[in-house]
Automatic annotation (TrEMBL):
Reactions it catalyzes: (6S)-NADHX + ADP = AMP + phosphate + NADH + H(+); (6R)-NADHX = (6S)-NADHX; (6R)-NADPHX = (6S)-NADPHX; (6S)-NADPHX + ADP = AMP + phosphate + NADPH + H(+)
Single GO BP term: nicotinamide nucleotide metabolic process
Similarity section: Belongs to the NnrD/CARKD family. Belongs to the NnrE/AIBP family.
Superkingdom of source: Bacteria
SUPFAM superfamilies for this protein: Ribokinase-like (SSF53613), YjeF N-terminal domain-like (SSF64153)
Subunit structure: Homotetramer.
Keywords linked to the UniProt accession: ATP-binding, Isomerase, Kinase, Lyase, Metal-binding, Multifunctional enzyme, NAD, NADP, Nucleotide-binding, Potassium, Transferase
Cofactor note: Binds 1 potassium ion per subunit.
Binding site for (6S)-NADPHX: 61-65, 125-131, 154, 253, 303, 347, 415
EC number: 4.2.1.136, 5.1.99.6
Stated name of the protein: Bifunctional NAD(P)H-hydrate repair enzyme
Metal-binding among keywords: yes
Length: 475
């Protein structure tokens, strides 16, 4: 699934409008919207005829879409009331609703909101600034308190369309019906959670002229793209990972990174971290070797803590020409520029430090931050967290890994994720693909095995998930 910015949507709509009659795009949008709302009414109340619908109408075309859709519902017998909450409502749309038997009510004449079966949020669309005026926010809160489900038109009013930020009040929709293309706010938290179920209505936009802002992966695509071993794959074909992670202070990080590499399918893992981790690794992962030798991907940095020789270790690994993953404390030892075949795996705080900005700046606009990480380092960057984004040199498109439950938000998850990334990298995949496949695998495994699993146990469930995908793919 691809997502685009408001500026891009405006360009795409301008092109489409040159070849269709005036108002045609809005009619396509309204027809699609009305169909989704009708289905939703039937699902929730068993009928469209007689169902009560409240339409919140803003001053722009978003309100126009809502009014034209409401007119269609009114013609099917729905009892539609509209309330104009900001500026003047779309004139033709309002006339169409009134002609179809709908009513325009005053905000203080709405009565008990619980009698409405559904509300349509046509307050603000892609022309909206984040936040809602106080009286609109009050009405939205009353609908919420009355448990009236909201269908958002194009996007939940109040969210920032291009970043997914929700800096002030915003609608929380059960369903969002968007037009032409998916927008960034539908995919990025915290706006994603306010989008509810997303339905895309085709209004005939040709997206091929624009570079997508986001390329979002789903589980099927991950399974299709996984570097499955072939009939003749040996351990070198599957890839050897060299793990130099952990320290006397943090031996566990090295162990968990190793769990990730083993369970992500590496052909062989060489553990090059501290001696103190050896007994634990030997007991639990007897396939891991401790001798230095040929590797096809490095993994450096997880749990290093203070590492006096860190800069030299990273420089040597980068100089070897083999790709690698640079995680956690290793990020502070990176050279000025890295090749795009190297993957950095910071969380928001680490990326903020790398960029010399506040953590909130990364959290408020993660797309911009992850791209800035690439510009600054030359490497591919996986921004870890609730939403996992991957940016790389040579394209502005940011890839979005399959989202997972928040169970993975615990110490050690990042170490195992770095190991999973290194396993895919060692199999010969480019850094951006390694990042998105590994992050998605961990999320899918966490969703399939919900509950607070220790990260190394979740790594084992990742292997189970690969097994399940593998079985599904056998003829
Ligand atoms: N452009 C097109 O071709 C199409 C547009 N469509 C609809 O049109 C929408 C965009 O319409 P508009 O460009 O008219 O913009 P909006 O309907 O999003 O509203 C913009 C208006 O709201 C005001 N406003 C913005 N943020 C505010 C805030 N926080 N508080 C108070 N007032 C605020 C602005 O001053 C402006 O008057 C899309 O989201 C979509 O629903 C669809 O009909 C499909 C076709
Ligand atoms: K809206």
């Amino acid at each position: 699934m691809q997502a685009f910015t408001v500026e891009q949507v405006r360009r795409l709509e301008a092109v489409a409008m040159r070849v269709v009659p005036e108002g045609a795009l809005m009619q396509r949008a309204a027809a699609g919207l009305a169909a989704v709302v009708a289905t939703e009414l039937v699902r929730r109340t068993g009928r469209v005829y007689g169902a009560r619908v409240l339409v919140l109408v803003g001053p722009g075309n978003n309100g126009g879409d809502a009014l034209w859709a409401a007119a269609r519902l009114a013609r099917r017998g729905a009892r539609v009331s509209a309330v104009s909450v900001l500026g003047r409502p779309h004139a033709e749309g309002l006339a169409a609703l009134l002609a179809a038997g709908g009513r325009l009510l005053d905000a203080d004449a709405l009565g008990d909101l619980a009698r409405y079966d559904l509300a349509l949020d046509g307050v603000l669309g892609i022309g909206g600034r984040p936040g809602l005026p106080e009286d609109v926010a009050g009405l939205v809160a009353r609908l919420d308190a009355a448990h009236v489900p909201v269908v958002a038109v194009d996007l939940p009013s109040g969210v920032a369309a291009d970043t997914g930020a929700v800096p002030a009040e915003a609608v929380a929709a059960a369903v969002t019906v968007t037009f032409g293309v998916v927008k960034v706010c539908h995919l990025l938290e915290p706006a994603r959670s306010r989008t509810g179920r997303l339905v895309l209505v085709d209004i005939g936009l040709d997206t091929t002229t624009e570079t997508p802002e986001i390329d979002a992966w789903d589980a099927d695509r991950v399974a299709d793209a996984w570097p499955w071993p072939g009939a003749s794959s040996d351990k070198y074909g599957k890839g050897v990972v060299g793990v130099d992670a952990g320290s006397e202070t943090y031996p566990g990080a090295g162990i968990m990174a190793t769990y990730g590499a083993v369970h992500g399918g590496a052909g062989m893992v060489r553990f090059l971290g501290p001696q103190s981790a050896h007994p634990m690794i030997t007991t639990n992962l007897p396939d891991v070797v401790f001798a230095a030798g040929r590797v096809q991907a490095h993994l450096l940095g997880s749990g290093w803590g203070e590492r006096p020789d860190g800069t030299q270790v990273v420089a040597d690994a980068v100089g070897s020409g083999v790709p690698g993953v640079l995680d956690a404390d290793g990020l502070g030892h990176r050279p000025d520029t890295l090749p795009g075949s190297w993957l950095l795996t910071p969380h928001a705080g680490e990326l903020a430090k790398l960029l010399g900005v506040e953590r909130t700046q990364v959290e408020d606009d993660p797309l911009a931050a992850v791209r800035a990480g690439v510009d600054k380092t030359g490497a591919t960057v996986l921004l870890k967290g609730a939403t996992q984004l991957v940016a790389r040199p040579g394209t502005t498109t940011v890839e979005l890994a399959v989202p997972g439950p928040a169970w993975t938000g615990q110490a050690g998850s990042g170490d195992t994720l770095a190991g999973l990334c290194a396993a895919v990298l060692a199999a010969g995949r480019p850094a951006h693909e390694a990042a998105v496949l590994a992050a998605s695998l961990q999320a899918v495994a966490a969703a399939a095995h919900p509950g607070p699993l220790p990260p190394h146990v979740l790594a084992e469930r990742c292997a189970d998930q690969l097994g399940a995908w593998w079985r599904e793919r056998q003829p």
